[in-house]
Design brief:
The strands form 6 sheets. The protein has a 7-stranded mixed β-sheet with strand order 7-6-5-8-22-21-20, sandwiched between helices. It starts with a strand and ends with a helix. The chain is α/β, with parallel strands linked by helices. It has 18 helices and 22 strands.
């Protein structure tokens, strides 16, 4: 018997270090770790010790004899990875922690998402280091709360790891406090030896086509935040009156949006989806979602686990034309030589299996269109149709390049959601790389400019550090790297001395109108939401307006 890693895998690699035979890959010291869709257990090497099960924060690891029908494909997916990857026995050696000098260090972290928490987790292990975490929202956890799809509850299991960090005595919350409004960057750097920005990449990329500004053309970022109950987006409305929606993009966010649009609202009602979104989806007329991918199946940005999950949605057919599963010249040559990357091979195999599935009359549909680009959105004041063209591959050496053709078609639709990526935005008084849309840095240490000098005491982590790539697991390694940079700078004695005590921060932000929410306040919100969820048979019922959240923070649920 072997163990199997299934869809909820968050890539945080906590399982890797406890495996006595090193059968879980890729490991953090392998180059492919940073681009891997998931971690994988080699069934031929696994000794069934179960150590990884206890470490997994999202309960993604299951013994193969306990897999239900839905998870059985992951046994093959795990095995497929080892068709072109090797496994060598032995433990992954832990890093030796440096000995800290005497003295205390105070660190401010701006942001409360996964990267912020993974940095904080490393730092608060050291009793000499205290962490104050700031976020403008009344709730923590960033995209785990406001980005992970509500029907992926297992992925949100990492919240327990974050909660353990926030419970440390040398950790304080400053939720509902906005840096730049209630406290300035300069005031932070005066009070803390180190300031870490973990503010993510909050803006979506644009399509850059005519008609993109029409009503009905929206960002998937906004739609996801809306159905997850983000206070900034709770009052938005979306036109769900038509029978077809088009999603431009083919990453995991695109698949999430498509799946939520066609999932039976009665099934969504068992999740923590925002009530206003559930009510709107109950009235929705959408029966088909078309996903447009600029390139081919080999370049599809979604993970195989998310792709596979589409086939598990009741009452929904996944439609793929076999003729569209064309490989680029590089991938075609690799396939001919039996050297095609196993992840791509699995992606192709799953797509072919979807293409062969029979359809059911009356089912809703998710339709994949590969090698297709939108060129114009038309309509009289609002979106009514999207024009798209077919693309073809062109020879470009080792790079995969495509060019548009004159072969075009129209899709009638009143709702177009762009899901083609995120980008960071400048932070007041912090250097910014306008080309990459990140803060220039070396291992998290902020630079004065691209290739400039290190700005002592200033750090970044997460998407604002490296760009909008990678999920929760990548953020763990990213946050740890930044935390290690802070610790190394403390050891080397190059952290700035605070010129002002941080003891006055609570009073300072209160004087400027902030209704700070601390750990007990967040626990009150959490208890209120969970109590409401319990009575409704749900994980939680989210509060979505700032005043409701502030009120709940002051009173524990009965």
């Amino acid at each position: 018997m072997a163990h199997v890693i299934t869809r909820p895998c968050c890539n945080d690699a906590s399982c890797v270090a406890v495996c006595p035979v090193n059968c879980i890959h890729p490991t953090p010291d392998e180059p492919t770790f940073f681009t891997a869709e998931s971690l994988y257990i080699d069934p031929d090497t696994c000794i069934d010790c179960g150590a990884c099960i206890d470490e997994c924060p999202v309960e993604a690891i299951i013994p193969d004899d306990q897999l239900d029908e839905r998870d059985e494909p992951y046994l093959q997916i795990n095995a497929d990875y080892y068709k072109d990857h090797d496994v060598e026995g032995g433990l992954v050696p832990p890093k030796k922690a440096p000995k800290l000098p005497e003295g205390d260090v105070r660190v401010a972290i701006v942001g409360a998402g996964p990267a912020a928490f993974y940095a904080a987790e490393e730092l608060v292990r050291k009793p000499q280091i205290s962490v104050d975490m700031f976020d403008r929202l009344p709730t923590p956890y960033g995209l785990v709360r406001a980005g992970v799809a509500p029907d992926h509850a297992a992925t949100k299991g990492v919240e327990s790891t974050f909660a353990a960090t926030s419970a440390k005595r040398n950790f304080r919350y400053f939720l509902n406090v906005e840096v730049g409004k209630h406290i300035s960057h300069d005031e932070l750097t005066a009070r803390y030896n180190a300031v870490i920005y973990a503010v993510g990449a909050p803006t979506d990329k644009r399509l850059g086509i005519p008609g993109e500004e029409l009503s009905g053309s929206v960002s998937a970022t906004e739609f996801v935040a809306w159905y997850n109950g983000h206070p900034d987006f709770a009052d938005l409305t979306f036109d769900l009156s038509g029978e077809r929606a088009v999603v431009v993009g083919n990453g995991n966010v695109a698949l999430d949006v498509a799946r939520i649009l066609v999932t039976d609202p009665d099934d969504l009602a068992k999740t923590d989806i925002a009530d206003h979104a559930l009510a709107a989806l109950r009235e929705s007329n959408i029966r088909e979602v078309v996903l447009l991918a600029r390139r081919g199946i080999a370049q599809a940005a979604y993970t195989n686990s998310e792709f596979l999950a589409l086939g598990e949605v009741d009452g929904v057919d996944v439609i793929i034309d076999p003729a569209e599963l064309t490989l680029d010249p590089v991938s075609e040559a690799a396939q001919s030589d039996d050297e095609l990357d196993s992840t791509i091979a699995t992606k192709l195999r799953l797509a072919r299996e979807f293409a062969e599935r029979p359809t059911t009359e009356g089912n809703k549909r998710i339709v994949f269109r590969f090698l297709t680009s939108p060129t114009e959105l038309t309509g009289d004041g609002k979106a009514e149709a999207l024009h798209a063209v077919r693309n073809v591959y062109t020879e470009a050496g080792e790079n995969v390049a495509i060019v548009p053709t004159d072969d075009g078609f129209d899709l009638e639709t009143g709702l177009v959601l762009r899901a083609i990526g995120y980008r960071g935005v400048p932070i007041n008084d912090v250097p910014f790389d306008e080309v990459r849309c990140v803060v220039p840095n070396v291992e998290g240490r902020v630079q004065s400019s691209v290739d400039g000098e290190i700005v002592r005491g200033l750090y970044v982590t997460g998407w604002i550090k490296r760009g909008a790539t990678g999920g929760i697991g990548r953020n763990r390694l990213c946050g740890q790297e930044t935390a290690e940079s802070v610790i190394a700078d403390f050891v080397e004695g190059v952290l700035p001395q605070a010129s002002t005590s941080a003891d006055d921060v609570a009073d300072l932000v209160a004087d400027r109108g902030a209704h700070r929410i601390d750990l007990p306040g967040w626990k009150n919100i959490d208890a209120t939401e969970r109590s409401a969820g319990k009575s409704a048979g749900r994980r939680r019922v989210k509060l979505v307006h700032i005043d409701e959240l502030e009120s709940a923070s002051r009173e524990a649920a009965e």
